[in-house]
């Protein structure tokens, strides 16, 4: 699948779940989706479109908690950002680690630094701060001083 | 060691003669055979991503350069690609050539360093001294070009900070021809040695499926037959302007990883030679674009470091420092593959397998200057974190009896 076919297929199949598609340039697309469809969209990208999971970036903004899941289609040089916005009060999203192992560590790290819950993660242990950081203090949240 | 239902636990680290950096591997063994492996980290975490939010774009280059001492140009390279993507600019050709020359010189010295260490782990100290001897002139080249043997401070948004003058090109070629001859000898010696074959072939095999599952990158992926290289897939700097090929191997064992790295050294030398030719065609001094403002937006930039793809994501709010800066180093993905490649190996092979992905812990945790996860120093200072680390070791020792 080339870049345009992936974007077309994504918008066709998940039209109700996609709220915005932004083309930044030929090789960079940002797609904002409904958080509940993250597993189906990831399965499509990983299993059918042949994309590789690069990493996820989380950030804390006025809108709430945002996660950008970065996927790479190595054959075409495409970097696809799947963007979700989670609520300020109860940030939680389904884990991707049951689809591939690549997201196992980063979800644990985001959980530690931002306090975002990854539902059904196979091994939600602390990655970085086991035993030397207080519970419930999330250093990458905006209110942390 | 503790007997856990017929399994022994062998802790390697957090401070261990085999490792240069503090990290704890727990090898659960049945007799000589590793049955499970667990990894504990965080001894080095210093909150670089948070720190980057308090620096200006110019300062971030110096910050990310200090993430890793060995591949200290790969992070600034990826960061420059990211910010230039937000700005939508194309840098002058001369700057592209200089960027690629620096990155490839770094690949040569990093791979030679790894070959030396691999020799050391195998008990071949002659190989270690040999490889490191020829790494030395490459570092001298860096000193000549940039003024520094490591942390070269060459990159900026829109170009590079120093030009490579005509007078230096011949000196570079001279050193390269020596390094080329010697690495060919080195490659031959490693590839033909029956003991190295016996020790590395079929050891620590990582299958193609595992590479895809774990998202492994760089030589670790290429040794398992996944032909992935950011320099070719998402071309940047001078890589589309020169001829070179992506090196792959099929078997996925330690030998394949060594083979890929050794052959990549020759490719890097060829890339540098072509870039030096390219420099002659471009006007001297034309090495940067003046960029005044970084617009609002997202940038996702990559660069192929010696260990694999470095990924940076910058969220810009139009101010002069990043609103959020996410960094993913290749070792972050590669270290996790230990779960597959080490299990079923004997202890001595497992150690070699751990070394074979060329893990870089400081990249994985994005450490650099000082423990600054709090910026208010609320929780810990440097001394306390060492104490905490020592305490953690003692706790583990106590737990394990």
How would you characterize the overall build of this protein?
- The complex is a heterodimer of chains A (145) and B (401).
- The termini of chain A are far apart.
- Chain A has three helices and seven strands; from the N terminus they run αββαββββαβ.
- Chain A has a five-stranded mixed β-sheet with strand order 1-2-5-4-3.
- Chain A has a single domain, classed as 2-Layer Sandwich (Beta Polymerase, domain 2).
- Chain A is 23% helix and 34% strand.
- Chain A has helices at 3-13, 38-48, 104-114, and strands at residues 18-25, 28-33, 52-61, 64-73, 78-86, 92-94, 117-119.
- The model of chain A has no long low-confidence stretch (mean pLDDT 93).
- Chain B folds into two domains: 3-43 and 370-400, no CATH class; 48-364, Cytochrome-c3 Hydrogenase, chain B, CATH 1.10.645.
- Chain B has 16 helices and nine strands.
- In chain B, the strands form three sheets. Chain B has a four-stranded antiparallel β-sheet, with no helix packed on it.
- In chain B, a hairpin with a 2-residue loop joins strand 3 (24-30) and strand 4.
- Chain B is globular, with a radius of gyration of 22 Å.
- The A-B interface holds A 24-25, 27-28, 30, 52-55, 57, 59, 68, 70, 72, 74-77, 79, 81, 100-102, 104-106, 126-134, 139-140, 144-145 and B 40-42, 45, 47, 49-50, 85, 88, 212-215, 228, 233-235, 297-298, 300, 302, 309, 311, 313, 315, 323-324, 326, 328, 332-333, 336, 339, 365, 373-374, 376, 379-380, 385, 388, 392, 395.
């Amino acid at each position: 699948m080339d870049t345009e076919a992936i974007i077309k297929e994504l918008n066709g199949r998940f039209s109700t779940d996609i709220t915005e598609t932004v083309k930044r340039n030929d090789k960079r697309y940002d797609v904002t989706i409904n958080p509940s469809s993250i597993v189906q969209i990831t399965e499509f990208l990983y299993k059918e479109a042949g994309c590789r999971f690069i990493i996820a970036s989380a950030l804390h903004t006025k809108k709430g908690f945002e996660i950008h899941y970065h996927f790479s289609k190595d054959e075409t040089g495409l970097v696809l950002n799947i963007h979700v916005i989670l609520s300020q009060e109860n940030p939680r999203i389904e884990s991707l680690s049951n689809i591939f192992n690549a997201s196992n560590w980063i979800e644990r790290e985001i959980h530690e630094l931002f306090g975002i819950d990854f539902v059904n993660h196979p091994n939600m242990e602390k990655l970085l701060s086991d035993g030397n950081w207080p519970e419930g203090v999330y250093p990458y949240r905006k209110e942390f001083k | 060691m503790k007997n856990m239902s017929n399994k022994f636990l062998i802790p390697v680290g957090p401070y261990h003669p085999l490792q240069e950096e503090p990290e704890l591997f727990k090898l659960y063994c049945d007799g000589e055979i590793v049955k499970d492996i667990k990894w504990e980290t965080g001894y080095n975490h210093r909150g670089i991503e948070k720190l980057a939010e308090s620096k200006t774009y110019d300062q971030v280059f110096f910050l990310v350069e200090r993430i890793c001492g060995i591949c200290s140009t790969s992070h600034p390279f990826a960061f420059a690609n990211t910010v230039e993507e937000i700005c939508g600019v194309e840098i002058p050709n001369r700057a592209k050539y200089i960027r690629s020359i620096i990155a490839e010189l770094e690949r040569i010295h990093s791979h030679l360093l790894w070959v030396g260490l691999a020799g050391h782990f195998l008990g071949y100290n002659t190989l270690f001294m040999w490889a490191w001897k020829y790494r030395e002139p490459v570092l001298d080249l860096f000193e000549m070009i940039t003024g520094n043997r490591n942390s070269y401070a060459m990159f900026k948004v829109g170009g590079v900070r120093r030009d490579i003058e005509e007078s230096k090109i011949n000196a570079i070629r001279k050193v390269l021809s020596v390094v080329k001859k010697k690495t060919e000898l080195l490659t031959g010696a490693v590839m033909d040695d029956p003991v190295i074959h016996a020790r590395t072939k079929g050891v620590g095999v990582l299958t193609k499926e595992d590479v895809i599952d774990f998202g492994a990158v760089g030589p670790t992926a290429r040794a398992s037959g996944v032909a992935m290289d950011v320099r070719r897939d998402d071309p940047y700097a001078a890589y589309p302007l020169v001829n070179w090929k992506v090196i792959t191997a099929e078997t996925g064992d330690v030998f394949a990883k060594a083979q890929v790295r050794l052959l990549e050294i020759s490719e890097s030398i060829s890339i540098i030679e072509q870039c030096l030719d390219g420099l002659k065609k471009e006007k001297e001094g034309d090495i940067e674009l003046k960029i005044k403002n970084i617009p609002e937006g997202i940038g996702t930039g990559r660069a192929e470091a010696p260990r694999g793809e470095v990924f940076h994501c910058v969220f810009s709010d139009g101010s002069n420092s990043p609103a959020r800066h996410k960094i993913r180093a290749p070792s972050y993905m590669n270290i996790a593959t230990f779960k597959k490649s080490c299990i079923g190996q004997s202890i001595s092979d497992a150690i070699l397998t751990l070394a074979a992905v060329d893990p870089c812990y400081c990249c994985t945790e994005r450490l650099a200057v000082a423990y600054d996860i709090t910026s208010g120093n609320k929780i810990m200072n440097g001394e306390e974190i060492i104490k905490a680390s020592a305490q953690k070791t003692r706790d583990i020792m106590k737990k394990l009896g």
